[in-house]
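haha ok so turns out i had the wrong file open the whole time. this is the CORRECT one, sorry everyone. sequence first:
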Amino acid sequence: MSRRSARNEPASRPCSRSGCDRPGEYRAPLAPDRTGSFQYLCLEHVREFNRSWNFFEGWSKEAIEAWQHADLSWHRPTWPASPPHHLHRVWTGDGVRDVFGVAGDGTCDPATTRLAAMSATERKARSILDIGPDADEAAIRRRFKKAVKACHPDINGGGGKANGRLRDVIWAYQHLTGTGHG
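then structure:
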Protein backbone atom coordinates (compact mmCIF):
# COMPACT_ATOMS: atom_id res chain seq x y z
CA MET A 1 0.00 0.00 0.00
CA SER A 2 1.42 3.40 -0.88
CA ARG A 3 2.00 6.05 1.76
CA ARG A 4 -0.57 8.35 0.17
CA SER A 5 -3.38 5.79 0.34
CA ALA A 6 -2.25 4.73 3.82
CA ARG A 7 -2.78 8.31 5.02
CA ASN A 8 -6.33 8.44 3.64
CA GLU A 9 -7.44 5.01 4.84
CA PRO A 10 -8.07 4.05 8.44
CA ALA A 11 -5.55 1.60 9.89
CA SER A 12 -8.03 -1.29 9.90
CA ARG A 13 -11.72 -1.65 9.12
CA PRO A 14 -13.93 -4.38 10.42
CA CYS A 15 -15.53 -6.76 7.90
CA SER A 16 -18.85 -5.35 6.63
CA ARG A 17 -20.71 -8.61 7.26
CA SER A 18 -22.64 -8.61 10.51
CA GLY A 19 -21.25 -10.89 13.18
CA CYS A 20 -17.75 -10.96 11.65
CA ASP A 21 -14.97 -9.42 13.72
CA ARG A 22 -12.08 -10.01 11.28
CA PRO A 23 -10.47 -7.01 9.54
CA GLY A 24 -12.05 -5.95 6.24
CA GLU A 25 -8.93 -5.84 4.06
CA TYR A 26 -10.62 -6.41 0.70
CA ARG A 27 -12.74 -3.89 -1.17
CA ALA A 28 -15.86 -5.08 -3.03
CA PRO A 29 -18.60 -3.10 -4.83
CA LEU A 30 -21.92 -2.81 -3.04
CA ALA A 31 -23.99 -3.74 -6.11
CA PRO A 32 -23.59 -4.02 -9.91
CA ASP A 33 -25.27 -0.65 -10.41
CA ARG A 34 -23.18 0.95 -7.64
CA THR A 35 -19.61 0.00 -8.62
CA GLY A 36 -18.28 3.30 -7.25
CA SER A 37 -19.41 2.51 -3.68
CA PHE A 38 -17.57 -0.16 -1.75
CA GLN A 39 -17.80 -2.42 1.22
CA TYR A 40 -14.81 -3.94 2.98
CA LEU A 41 -14.73 -7.68 3.58
CA CYS A 42 -12.44 -10.20 5.20
CA LEU A 43 -10.79 -12.89 3.06
CA GLU A 44 -13.48 -15.52 3.75
CA HIS A 45 -16.36 -13.18 2.93
CA VAL A 46 -14.69 -11.66 -0.16
CA ARG A 47 -14.23 -15.18 -1.56
CA GLU A 48 -17.91 -15.89 -0.93
CA PHE A 49 -18.81 -12.54 -2.52
CA ASN A 50 -16.69 -13.27 -5.62
CA ARG A 51 -18.29 -16.70 -6.12
CA SER A 52 -21.77 -15.18 -6.11
CA TRP A 53 -20.99 -11.95 -8.04
CA ASN A 54 -22.80 -11.59 -11.37
CA PHE A 55 -22.67 -8.13 -12.89
CA PHE A 56 -25.30 -9.02 -15.50
CA GLU A 57 -27.81 -10.67 -13.15
CA GLY A 58 -31.34 -9.86 -14.27
CA TRP A 59 -30.29 -8.49 -17.67
CA SER A 60 -31.71 -9.73 -20.98
CA LYS A 61 -29.38 -11.28 -23.56
CA GLU A 62 -29.84 -8.27 -25.86
CA ALA A 63 -29.00 -5.83 -23.05
CA ILE A 64 -25.85 -7.79 -22.19
CA GLU A 65 -24.72 -7.83 -25.83
CA ALA A 66 -25.42 -4.10 -26.20
CA TRP A 67 -23.41 -3.35 -23.04
CA GLN A 68 -20.50 -5.52 -24.21
CA HIS A 69 -20.52 -3.87 -27.65
CA ALA A 70 -20.50 -0.40 -26.09
CA ASP A 71 -17.75 -1.47 -23.68
CA LEU A 72 -15.39 -2.05 -26.62
CA SER A 73 -15.17 1.73 -26.96
CA TRP A 74 -15.50 2.55 -23.25
CA HIS A 75 -19.16 3.47 -23.79
CA ARG A 76 -18.16 6.42 -25.98
CA PRO A 77 -19.69 7.19 -29.41
CA THR A 78 -17.78 5.86 -32.43
CA TRP A 79 -17.87 6.28 -36.20
CA PRO A 80 -16.80 4.01 -39.06
CA ALA A 81 -13.07 4.13 -39.75
CA SER A 82 -13.26 3.20 -43.43
CA PRO A 83 -12.99 6.12 -45.82
CA PRO A 84 -15.70 6.92 -48.33
CA HIS A 85 -15.32 5.15 -51.67
CA HIS A 86 -14.59 8.38 -53.54
CA LEU A 87 -11.28 8.67 -51.67
CA HIS A 88 -9.95 5.72 -53.68
CA ARG A 89 -10.24 7.81 -56.85
CA VAL A 90 -8.72 10.86 -55.14
CA TRP A 91 -5.76 8.93 -53.72
CA THR A 92 -4.97 7.03 -56.90
CA GLY A 93 -5.35 10.25 -58.89
CA ASP A 94 -2.65 11.81 -56.68
CA GLY A 95 -0.31 8.91 -57.40
CA VAL A 96 -0.76 7.17 -54.03
CA ARG A 97 -0.41 3.41 -54.35
CA ASP A 98 -3.16 1.72 -52.34
CA VAL A 99 -1.23 -1.53 -51.96
CA PHE A 100 -3.53 -3.13 -49.42
CA GLY A 101 -6.84 -1.83 -50.75
CA VAL A 102 -7.49 0.40 -47.73
CA ALA A 103 -9.26 3.10 -49.73
CA GLY A 104 -10.90 0.66 -52.11
CA ASP A 105 -14.33 -0.87 -52.07
CA GLY A 106 -13.31 -3.74 -49.80
CA THR A 107 -12.52 -6.17 -52.60
CA CYS A 108 -8.84 -6.83 -52.88
CA ASP A 109 -7.16 -9.43 -55.07
CA PRO A 110 -4.42 -11.08 -52.96
CA ALA A 111 -2.13 -11.63 -55.98
CA THR A 112 -2.43 -7.98 -57.01
CA THR A 113 -1.73 -6.91 -53.44
CA ARG A 114 1.43 -9.04 -53.26
CA LEU A 115 2.61 -7.75 -56.64
CA ALA A 116 1.97 -4.12 -55.69
CA ALA A 117 3.79 -4.57 -52.37
CA MET A 118 6.97 -5.73 -54.15
CA SER A 119 9.81 -3.39 -54.95
CA ALA A 120 10.07 -2.01 -58.47
CA THR A 121 13.16 -4.14 -59.20
CA GLU A 122 11.40 -7.31 -58.10
CA ARG A 123 8.40 -6.47 -60.28
CA LYS A 124 10.77 -5.83 -63.21
CA ALA A 125 12.56 -9.16 -62.63
CA ARG A 126 9.25 -11.03 -62.50
CA SER A 127 8.13 -9.25 -65.65
CA ILE A 128 11.32 -10.27 -67.51
CA LEU A 129 10.77 -13.92 -66.56
CA ASP A 130 7.01 -13.54 -67.13
CA ILE A 131 6.04 -15.01 -63.75
CA GLY A 132 3.40 -13.95 -61.26
CA PRO A 133 3.74 -12.96 -57.61
CA ASP A 134 2.85 -16.46 -56.38
CA ALA A 135 5.67 -18.25 -58.20
CA ASP A 136 7.92 -20.25 -55.89
CA GLU A 137 11.64 -20.89 -56.40
CA ALA A 138 11.02 -24.06 -58.44
CA ALA A 139 8.70 -22.19 -60.83
CA ILE A 140 11.24 -19.38 -61.14
CA ARG A 141 13.96 -21.92 -61.99
CA ARG A 142 11.77 -23.67 -64.61
CA ARG A 143 10.88 -20.34 -66.24
CA PHE A 144 14.55 -19.26 -66.17
CA LYS A 145 15.69 -22.43 -67.95
CA LYS A 146 13.01 -22.01 -70.60
CA ALA A 147 13.90 -18.32 -71.15
CA VAL A 148 17.66 -19.05 -71.34
CA LYS A 149 17.10 -21.74 -73.96
CA ALA A 150 14.96 -19.35 -76.02
CA CYS A 151 17.56 -16.56 -76.15
CA HIS A 152 20.86 -18.45 -75.87
CA PRO A 153 23.40 -17.37 -78.56
CA ASP A 154 24.22 -20.97 -79.53
CA ILE A 155 20.60 -21.56 -80.49
CA ASN A 156 19.68 -18.30 -82.22
CA GLY A 157 22.97 -17.40 -83.89
CA GLY A 158 24.28 -14.88 -81.35
CA GLY A 159 22.28 -11.79 -82.35
CA GLY A 160 22.73 -8.59 -80.33
CA LYS A 161 19.10 -8.41 -79.28
CA ALA A 162 19.17 -11.98 -77.98
CA ASN A 163 22.36 -11.28 -75.99
CA GLY A 164 20.68 -8.32 -74.27
CA ARG A 165 17.65 -10.44 -73.49
CA LEU A 166 19.91 -13.20 -72.09
CA ARG A 167 21.62 -10.67 -69.80
CA ASP A 168 18.21 -9.49 -68.57
CA VAL A 169 17.01 -13.06 -67.95
CA ILE A 170 20.16 -13.91 -65.97
CA TRP A 171 19.86 -10.68 -63.95
CA ALA A 172 16.19 -11.38 -63.19
CA TYR A 173 16.94 -14.94 -62.05
CA GLN A 174 19.83 -13.82 -59.86
CA HIS A 175 17.74 -11.06 -58.33
CA LEU A 176 14.78 -13.32 -57.55
CA THR A 177 16.85 -16.18 -56.13
CA GLY A 178 19.33 -14.01 -54.27
CA THR A 179 22.34 -15.51 -56.08
CA GLY A 180 23.30 -12.34 -57.93
CA HIS A 181 25.85 -9.73 -57.01
CA GLY A 182 24.00 -6.63 -58.08
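The chain has a mean pLDDT of 81.
again sry for the mixup
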